[in-house]
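> Could you send the DDHD1 Phospholipase prediction when you get a chance?

Sure thing. Input:
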Amino acid sequence: GTGGEGSEGEGAGLGSSDSGGSGFSLAASALPERRRPGGGRPRYEVVRELGAEEVRWFYREDRKTWKPFIGYDSLRIELAFRALGSGGGAGEPAAVEPVCVRSGLYEVDVASAESYPVYWNQTEKIPVMRGQWFIDGTWQPLEEEESNLIEQEHLNRFKGQQLQESFDMEISKPVDGKEAIHSLKLSRNHVDWHSVDEVYLYSDATTSKIARTVTQKLGFSKASSSGTRLHRGYVEEATLEDKPPQTSHIVFVVHGIGQKMDQGRIIKNTAMMRDTARKVEEKYFSNLATHVEFLPVEWRSKLTLDGDTVDSITPDKVRGLRDMLNSSAMDIMYYTSPLYRDELVKGLQQELNRLYSLFCSRNPEFEEKGGKVSIVSHSLGCVITYDIMTGWNPVRLYEQLLQKEEEELEESWMSYEERRLLEELYITKQRLREIEERLHELKASTISKPPVLKFKVENFFCMGSPLAVFLALRGIRPGTSGSQDHILPRTICNRLLNIFHPTDPVAYRLEPLILKHYSNISPVQIHWYNTANPLPYEHMKPSFLNPSKEATSAPEPESASAAPSPTTSPVMVRRHYGESITNIGKASILGAASIGKGLGGMLFSRFGRSSATPQTMETGKDGPEGEEKKVGTVGTPPLPHSSSGFLEPTVELEHRIDFELREGLVESRYWSAVTSHTAYWSSLDIALFLLTFMYKQDQEETDKSNLDTM
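Output:
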């Protein structure tokens, strides 16, 4: 049998006495299906009404099997249920507050026996059920109506009777030859009591009756041939100690704009990410007393945008492919449209602030204890989140353009009249700017402007992100310092991390926008989930990219004479696998993002640069734990690198930003180019990667305290 979610709490429950645990451990080892905290005897010596700790509440999502609430949740739901049943005095039911369950993400309305999420909207309510009688082996509850009838009959017939003295009651003794001492007829089944604690359920369907008759004639007993053993009270007592850990870090999960097709998709995706992270937490971070909570930011459904105009103009042929393009390329066109951009930014900003305020109001200790906030954004959600954090606006770009035009105009030849008018215009603009500033100062003194976001972002994780293309088309060019501040100041966000699948056609690298020579350095490989003792990411040294073996052009002899430095070397030609299919994604993104910026922006591409010098390389093999590739150049003087084969550039990034998932061993590159953009949510590798960075400080503090203790 299973203990469900509540397998951790072993404290004494309500109504159970605290006697020595030595007898229990022996009994439990022989009988793994029945675990009872606090003593080696049954809960009660005589049959009486079930205690609140013996009842277990369950919930069911997506019409799957019933899942048990953990002890802490179940006990509180049961107490609310009993308060509801006690009534409010004048024959009216008592008003009972909803019970907060499942780490505070859901509430249970006991009166309607339904559960619903706190932080997002969900059309389907989640049914909850009170379990009193359970099926042997699976510990699934009997349906509530049948359970109530059996419980009522059991109490009427056996209340006050003596139970057996030990765990013998749990051993399924044969009931051959024993006649039922009591029976109860239900609508489709009947229940036989062979003794006070030997209860069997039988189906009354015709086929079951025939099978029962045949087997009994062959000499088998009725119970052993077709009966289902029932247990009264759950396998494990509910205790208040069996509660979830405190949330120390919340993660807002932001979708791209393609949610119109399926509004609940981000909720499902976040649930996948949360479930995957729970598995990783149990395996790698169970020693920490806190945990990370993931909250979906579903902001798209509240916006009207174009209504259904784009859907109505989409042809029906190859609809699946068109829908995929509508949810990626169309997103970018929405965002570059001056008509809809502000609506999108405000929609996301308001939802982030609403969720944070709601979480803090329900968890007042979160801010007091220095709780942290991270954001995981997918696809175009990365660009919108970035623009909210930095306050970037296209108006700023327009002002820069006007200023540039003014400078060019001043340098050109003009008549006396033109120059006089230009000076007048310049003085008027200067005066206008001064008035605007004074007005702004007056407003600022009376109304303090609230911050754009109500929280500081600890980590900003981009997944499958086209952010680099947008920044390049806004004029950001590589600098000379290896600081993240070049694209995202540390005062706004402590750490920026860009995660992508190698065949994701929508994802681009960010590091070459900070230091140009990083286009020749491979992204950091994300460890596989089951890697034993992986090298910490901060200890991984940068290594050269490995151009594909199919590059046919050998380096020209004369080009070997000039040895380029790592900071000034031209970007190498990199023929990518799946080039034709990734060009579809590249063309749609660049085409949409460069609207109004001319064709010049189209030249920015990671897939091919005609001016680059081809260089052939020979690759070292990956180590057992997938360490970075060690590469040496052939035919040209080597770039500065150490004897280990790793690159040692003159300037390095303070922190690595680009992290690449490892490709599966059997997946088709062309097929994964289609599927990889949405394959991040259920990846155990990504869940471990996210938690590694979010738990970093907690892990270091725990390790330090362990060392101090030693």
